[in-house]
Amino acid sequence: MTRDLCASCTAALRDSQLYLTDFELEEIKEYKQVWYLGQEATKARSSKAAEPQNTKSFNFGYDTKDGFYKIINDHLAFRFEILGVIGAGYSGQVLKCMDHKNMELVAVKVIRNKKRHKALLHRITLWILRELDKNNTANIMDGFWIILLGDLYRAIKGSKHHGLSEKAVKNYTIDVLKCLQLLRKKRVVHGDLKPDNILLYKHGTNTLFIVFLHPSSTDQPVIHTLYYISPEMLLGKRCGPATDMWSLGCTVAELHLGRRLFRGCDTADHFCCIMKVLGVPPPELLIAAPKRHNFFREQKDFRL
Questions:
Q1: Is 157 flagged in the annotation as binding?
Q2: What pLDDT, in 10s, does the model give residues 134-181?
Q3: CB atoms closer than 10 angstroms to residue 92
Q4: N or C: which end of the chain has fewer CB within 10 A?
Q5: Residues assigned a catalytic role
Q6: Contact 5, 48 (CB under 8 A)
């Protein structure tokens, strides 16, 4: 179904009942316009009402047991055709798709279909989008982020790891700080801030930036990538807004330098890399640190 063949829900139901699943025949009623139906896909044939509970937990056959979307050539939101998987992470996967409304290739980040990922993510994300200035929000719908320009890690790779201009780094940093400021108001920690999770979005003539949220409230565990984790988190301290600020500092340095600021091969080596630059943490921090014995035999004695 091309752009010229956009159909209403009623017309799509009339013409496509043979290859839509029982689940899709119900789902399509929620959409006013239909651009693509996934006619070429080998669909998951399941009934929303008749499936056993263990199948329902895998999104009626559309997801893997880990909550990732798995049907190639199928549709997303009756608009996007899934062409392949670009990459996957803890909180979701990035799919290469054809947007049949605008007839252009896009990358779509799909949130992992697990309750603990989606509930808080949706609540915080929608609030962030309402609060941010219109020129700093990306297009989110039904759990999908539409990304037209990739992410900051790809931007670094595009510079052949020579780093970005000071002007670009400044603009990116300001936009991320706006998001972090709003997160702090909600007592939420992003938890995995890094170039890969800062997505680039094109809107009109402006290039806009927003963080892809994998948020956690301050009393919940967060997922960190080693190169961007703060010393406090390595020492077992509770996460907070300062955790994200450390990750942002590492990210800004990487944008400018074209390489990671601290590059330890494991937690002990990474902590050592940090201390070579910043010195040993202050005694008052170490005394209260639950995991200090992972790195120190005695105070100021680093365990190699």
A1: no
A2: 444 444 554 555 656 678 888 899 999 999 999 999 988 988 888 888
A3: 26
A4: C
A5: 192
A6: no
